[in-house]
């Protein structure tokens, strides 16, 4: 196992169910040893989460380009000098690629230049409907040419501008809004550093929505 996946101050989600369904408890890695991991005390309704010693717990954390699921064993809790959980070092680590599969709804303004269109016909007033590490779906008032090459620029909160090339993969005219078009765009040659920024944005947005009970 690559122990470098787990870093002090890294945020983790803790689940009591192997399926990782149901309640999620948010925590942070406080300390790591070759055999143990110490995390900040997960809380339930403002109170320390109660788990029996020896019980399995399940977690997930975000790496640079993937989500990692892991299993650990709860050993003990300590209240001083700060409330923490003592757990076995994570085992059964599973890597889940995010770049193509995890997509989240959004409403980010995006500037797009379609290579085959003259300046006067370039689309304006565009928004990203959803985003993944592999591409975006754009809300537009005009259709895009199929398979057209495009240039995109959008701002990620707390990150800054993302600029990349893309290719139109699909154009839909939704029945719910026939005056609009949903334009699927696949990223082309997106640098891994910027892909990582997008994935972390998706993960953070997902966590925030879960906390607010929107998912």
UniProtKB/TrEMBL annotation:
Pfam families: PilZ, PilZNR. Residues 7-90 form the Type III secretion system flagellar brake protein YcgR PilZN domain. Coiled coil: none annotated. Signal peptide: none annotated. InterPro entries: PilZ_domain, T3SS_YcgR_PilZN. One of its GO terms (molecular function) is cyclic-di-GMP binding. It comes from the Bacteria. Residues 97-203 form the PilZ domain. Transmembrane segments: none annotated. This is Type IV pilus assembly PilZ. It comes from Acetonema longum DSM 6540.
């Amino acid at each position: 196992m690559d122990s470098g996946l787990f870093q002090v101050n890294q945020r983790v989600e803790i689940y009591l169910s192997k399926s990782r369904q149901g309640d999620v408890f948010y925590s942070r890695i406080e300390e790591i040893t070759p055999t143990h991991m110490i995390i900040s005390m997960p809380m339930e309704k403002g109170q320390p989460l109660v788990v029996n010693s020896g019980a399995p717990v399940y977690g997930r954390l975000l790496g640079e380009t993937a989500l990692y699921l892991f299993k650990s064993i709860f050993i003990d809790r300590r209240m001083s000098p700060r409330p923490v959980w003592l757990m076995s070092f994570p085992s059964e680590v599973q890597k889940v690629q995010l770049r193509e599969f995890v997509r989240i709804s959004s409403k980010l303004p995006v500037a797009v230049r379609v290579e085959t269109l003259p300046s006067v016909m370039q689309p304006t007033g565009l928004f990203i409907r959803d985003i993944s590490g592999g591409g975006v779906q754009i809300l537009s008032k005009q259709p895009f040419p199929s398979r057209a090459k495009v240039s995109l620029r959008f701002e990620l909160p707390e990150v800054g501008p993302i600029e990349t090339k893309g290719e139109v993969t699909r154009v839909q005219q939704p029945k719910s809004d026939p005056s609009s078009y949903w334009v699927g765009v696949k990223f082309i040659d997106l640098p891994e550093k910027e892909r990582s920024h997008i994935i972390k944005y998706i993960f953070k947005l997902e966590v925030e929505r879960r906390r607010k009970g929107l998912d």
